[in-house]
Amino acid sequence: MNMLNDYQRELIHREIDGANTPEESAEVRELVATQPEALSLMTNLQSLDSLFREVPYREPSPHMRQAIYNAMSVRSAQVNTQTITGWAAQLWNGVLNFMGELMLTKKVLIGATTAVAAIAIIGYAIVGYPPSVYDAGTIGSGDGMGGVEQAGRYHGVKKTDADVTLSSPEIQALLQNDQVLKLVKSEVFHEVMRNDAYRLLLSSDAYRVLLSNDAFRILLQSDAYQQLQSSAAYQQLQSSAAYQQLQSSAAYQQLQSSAAYQQLQSSAAFHDLMANSSYREVMSSAAYRELSANQAYHDVMVSSAFQQLMSSAAFRELSMNAAFRELSSSAAFRELSMNAAFRELSSSAAFREVSMSAAFRELSANEAYRGVMSSEAFRVLESSAAFRELSHDAAMSQAFLAEASRAQE
Amino acid sequence: MDNAPAANDDLDRALVRRFLDGERAAGDELVNRYHRSVFNVALRMLGNVQDAEDVTQTTFGNAFEALDSYDPTYRFFSWIYRMTVNESLNTLKRRRNVVSLDGSFDVPAPDAISQSAAEAEERVGSALMELKPDDRAVVVLRHFVSFSYEEISDALGVPVKTVKSRLFTARERLRQSLLVASA
User: Fold this and answer.
1) How far apart are CA B105 and CA B82, in angstroms?
2) How far is B81 from B141, CA to CA, in rounded Å?
């Protein structure tokens, strides 16, 4: 029996792939007819090919296709690349979701406050004022839902190095980059960070729709979050007057007594959620959707009691708490920005709505914004490998933005 | 299994141009043409539905972000599949950093497919995951998208000779694991 040489073996493979000329195919037929090894190889490769053909073609979920369409819409409508403000928006979205979801748990206020603390840190890093989307001076702020009032600037607790986790060599290198520092210290960058249009965007109704997403479930399961809940600051917050006031507010009571909330709380799925299981079931339930769309829920978020809570000393202490910092720098938080739900959020219809909003258009058209986008410093930054890496990591983005805030100071 | 869209370079280029000119429907058409096959390539590369959906979304996201820098002298479908494979390889790398093994096949069979199809998928999927990712990419593009050697070469950015070498080596391994071992 002759052994097949490399050329003959390749001929047989090529025959399977339909890549042979008629002459080469004739050569293969001759080989198969005369050499058992060739026949065996040919038969095996044909069987293999048949087996591949038996594998069914899988249909992706319609949900995924819609997410792609939406992402495309956003990208075609807004600035064409991932920008610093893009990160900021994504971070906001994720944290706002975090807040919205935690409002549904039994740890209602504390969970929300934890999320608000996250917003405080991230938002302060971005715009240097209390970052609630329901803050005074924003559309839909306070007790009413309409009108634009003069914003009162807030000077939060000054950040220290300890507030920012710079554990990654990449982010450290990035922050030592002259071009990056030049950018974050530039007046035009500061102007955007202070820009009213940007703040209007963050306070728009469209953003509220984003609250109904499930992007933060991983956070709920993290050890850091558990640690936060058992911290002294947490306990102090629980006993604070502001917290008590919020709990006794009409809006909060209305939320708790709403049919949708009761229905959700009494569902089996909700109990599973408390044990950190079946989370997706809850998120996809009609009850959850009903609740998240409930006006009472939104009323809580805009109530004066909630505003007071946010400005309380206890809240500030919580935001400075080591456990909270651990949470915000945890792997779970980083995972948040990388998981499918988070990406889905950023490509959601709600996000699209935001990108189409007048506030966003105003921001995009703003001279200061355009100045940053077209600056040489930004182009250098954007094309760097570190930037690209950073743009996929929430924790690093947060660290960068915090650094930007420090540079601002 | 080959339901990849028929290559139509002129159509693809026209759609890209129209999308860049602001016609949203052209982008929808591009997604409609390729999202299934991109998802299936990612699925066979990764052996996991969720990861494959993530990669598909990321691929299209990256593609639309970079569309204005797309060079129409290259074929769009090679470009999009190249992005898909690269994103899949990145996902595999990230996965390796988290878990010790990346060779598991975790694709639950839907009710709609026959038992024999489900078994074929399980067998082929598991065997694919035993291949080196670079070899797997060649097999996937050849057998699941019906790419020619030259198209695989374009998509992966490697010489045709390398494509053949990887394909033949991979098939030998698959032959051993799927046919000889089970005989």
Assistant:
1) 22
2) 9
Q: Assess B97–A contact: CB distance below 8 Å, yes or no.
A: no
**Any bridge partners for residue B106, and if so which?**
B48
Whole-number Å distance between alpha carbons of A300 and A113: 12
Query: What does the pLDDT look like over A92-110, one tens digit per residue?
Result: 444 444 444 433 333 333 3
CA angle at A11 for the pair A10 and A17, rounded to the nearest 5°: 90
**Model confidence band, residue A304 (pLDDT cutoffs 50, 70, 90):** low
B24 → closest Cβ in A48, A73, A343? A73
Q: Best mutation site among A68, A72, A334, A337 for testing chain B: the one with the most B CBs within 10 Å? A: A68
The minimal CB distance from B168 to the residues A10, A47, A82 is found for A10
Higher pLDDT, A127 or B111: B111
Q: What is the pLDDT of residues A305-343, one digit of tens each?
A: 444 444 544 444 444 544 444 444 444 444 444 444 444
Q: Give me the pLDDT at residue A33, please.
A: 92
Is residue B175 assigned to a domain? yes
How far are the Cα atoms of B10, B69, B77, B82, B121 from residue B74, in angstroms, in the given order?
Answer: 11, 12, 9, 12, 33
Q: Nearest CA of chain B to the CA of A358: how many Å? A: 19
Helix (H) or strand (E) holding A324: helix A322-328
Least confident window among A83-97, A244-258, B81-95:
A83-97
With respect to residue B101, please indicate whether it lies within any of the assigned structural domains: yes
Q: Is the pLDDT of residue B116 over 60?
A: yes
The ipTM, to two decimals, is 0.85
Tell me how close the Cα of A225 comes to any Cα of chain B, in angstroms.
21
Handedness of CA A98, A103, A108, A110 (dihedral sign): positive
Per-residue pLDDT band at B27 (split at 50, 70, 90): confident
Assess B86–A contact: CB distance below 8 Å, yes or no.
Answer: no
Compute the average pLDDT of residues A82-87: 38
Contact B163, B173 (CB under 8 A): no
CA distances from A83 to A74, A369, A372, A391 (A): 13, 10, 10, 8
Structural domains counted in chain B: 1
Question: Which residue in chain B is spatially nearest to A340 when comparing CA positions?
Answer: B54
Mean pLDDT of all residues in A132-145: 26
Instruction: Look at residue B106 and give its three-state secondary structure.
Output: strand
pLDDT at A64: 80
Residue B4 inside a domain? The answer is: no
When comparing pLDDT for A166 and B139, which is higher? B139
Q: How far apart, in whole angstroms, are the C-alpha atoms of residue A74 and residue A209?
A: 16
Domain boundaries, chain A: 6-54, 66-258+294-408
Neighbouring CB atoms inside 10 A of A37's CB total 16
Sequential DSSP letters for B40-66 = HHHHHHHSBHHHHHHHHHHHHHHHHHH
Asked whether residue B2 is domain-assigned, the answer is no
**Mean predicted confidence (pLDDT) in A355-379:** 50
CATH of the domain at B159: 1.10.1740.10
DSSP secondary structure letter of residue A194: T
Nearest to A8 by CA among A28, A23, A35: A28
Which domain range does residue B165 map to?
9-180
A253: tokens are 């009571």
Rounded to whole angstroms, the Cα distance separating A328 from A346 reads: 20
